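Hi! If you just cloned this repository, the fastest way to understand the data is to look at a raw example. We've pasted two of them here, unedited. The first protein comes first, obviously.
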Amino acid sequence: MAEFMHAMSDLYGDSPPAPGAPPASPAEAEASHFRLAERLLHLACPDARACTDQRCRRDRLCRHLAFVRDKREKGIATHPRRSPGAEAVRYAVWVYMNTVGVR
């Protein structure tokens, strides 16, 4: 958890976004979600050739990053009350938390 908090402080600095503060627009919020998801995935899998997931090593492409980019392109979420960006962040946090302990 400490590594996750350190990653968040690297991303947002000392002043994280205020909770409940609305973004300028829904498009800006989605872009922010996707940036956060990609950053977390980069921390979890910096090099696909050295990834703990065999499919990433075999294809030389991080399958997790491909999933997030596919979400961005299609713009479709599987959960009715979650945006594609929020779903991507949720997935990226899950990947990050499951890979940090493996290394």
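Ok, and the second one:
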Amino acid sequence: MSGPCEWNVSYAAAQGCNAITDLPADERLVFEMMAVHYLWRWTGTKFGTCPVTVRPQRADCASYNSFSGGVPAFLPGEGAPWTPALVNGQWYNIGCACGDLCSCDHVEQITLPGPIDSIEEIVIDGMVLAAHTYRVDNGNLLVRIDGESWPTCNDLSQDSAVGTGGTGTWQVTYKQGLQVPIGGQVAAGILATEFAKAATGDKDCALPKRVQSVSRQGITVAMLDTFDDIQVGHTGIWLVDSWVASVTKAPHHSRVYSPDVKESRRTTWQT
């Protein structure tokens, strides 16, 4: 992925500056894209949501071993023939990793590549599944809540879209990623404005100049900035740098984990 699919830009902190707001929309978009890509990289490529379509498939479905489109995802049950599982406080070796249900025929939840921002659509056998029949827990668990089970196999040799999906096919379309906080939207507006100023030679540009002069004992030497700081998001603009630092320098806390304690469950999306 070369950049985020969605990153709104706010000019709330650039009021009264015409360097970018007076530009034609297509030219303004260029500077906005530059700013967004810089911020996206500086913050670890974690912000911004993108639409993703996956076709869940369990690895032991040998009859459906071809792939025709989408992104493959896997249900519980993949991997080694015997898998350790914690069931009611005791460890067992079971033939499939289906969790506490200890069943390979009734799958109530699957793990999808997250974080999941929202579910756009689930199509089973070419028909859209009603949104009230599922939810998302912990940001990546797709849970069936209508008493039914997710299909255990997926015929990847057939199309799975609405109206054209064949029997035995299904797909999940969702937005993956984290929504950009308002601070990131404002930072993008400030940075885009400064890029526009720099491109037009505006003397009020807040971005640091690449050529810097150092004077010692009456001798002035011009040096080129190596841009070492810019690689980690140090622009010299306080509002931009402070936001980048706030989302990349998380505090470190000690944690203790026990295999006997189940992970807490929190619903993160539901219609």
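That's it. A detail worth noticing about the second one: The mean pLDDT is 78.
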